[in-house]
Backbone:
């Protein structure tokens, strides 16, 4: 479903610009979530690197819009995003649901809960990015588009490895908990893709 949706999106300049803007919004929202989870003093290099790279992805995706039409999508207003309500709800809802799960399972609170949520939410997002961006790139290649996300694909693969290394240190049983978080993310993502399809001229 996602690949056929993306073919419809890439074939329409306005929709494609909005799609890039939507991805940029989500990367920017992710970067802000990472920064919000930081301890006031104990901030490691990986967190700084990750927040910086997510911000750069947001900038890179926004800049790609000029390859389609420089006049399009200057802001993150609802009119310039695809499925704005679902887009803005997705990451926030994932964060809340994962916090609830971790609080119940590990009895965490305060900074410890924030940091654990950062680990698991980011892991789920990176798993999703590892699936979504290569599908998008394949559609771009097929359409012979000037837009390119190959550099993001490489960095997201590195992020996933970094998150797994941190999760190993967090819990011996991290994989079972990560599987539960992935289920939560999958349901939210599927809702988002359904909302996306409803906005296309021909629902894929």
Residues:
């Amino acid at each position: 479903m996602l690949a056929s949706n993306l073919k419809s999106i890439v074939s329409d300049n306005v929709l494609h610009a909005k799609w890039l803007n939507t991805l940029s919004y989500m990367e920017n929202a992710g970067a802000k979530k990472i920064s919000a989870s930081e301890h006031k003093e104990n901030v490691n290099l990986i967190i700084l690197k990750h927040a910086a790279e997510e911000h750069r992805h947001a900038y890179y995706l926004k800049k790609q819009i000029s390859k389609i039409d420089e006049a399009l999508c200057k802001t993150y207003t609802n009119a310039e995003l695809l499925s704005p309500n679902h887009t803005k709800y997705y990451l926030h809802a994932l964060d809340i649901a994962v916090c609830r799960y971790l609080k119940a399972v590990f009895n965490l609170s305060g900074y410890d809960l924030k940091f654990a949520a950062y680990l698991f939410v980011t892991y789920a997002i990176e798993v999703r990015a590892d699936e979504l961006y290569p599908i998008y790139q394949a559609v771009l290649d097929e359409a012979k588009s000037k837009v390119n996300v190959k550099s993001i694909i490489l960095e997201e693969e590195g992020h996933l490895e970094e998150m797994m290394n941190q999760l190993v240190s967090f819990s011996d049983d991290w994989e079972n908990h990560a599987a539960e978080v992935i289920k939560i993310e999958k349901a939210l993502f599927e809702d988002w893709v359904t909302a996306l399809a409803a906005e296309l001229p021909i629902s894929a």
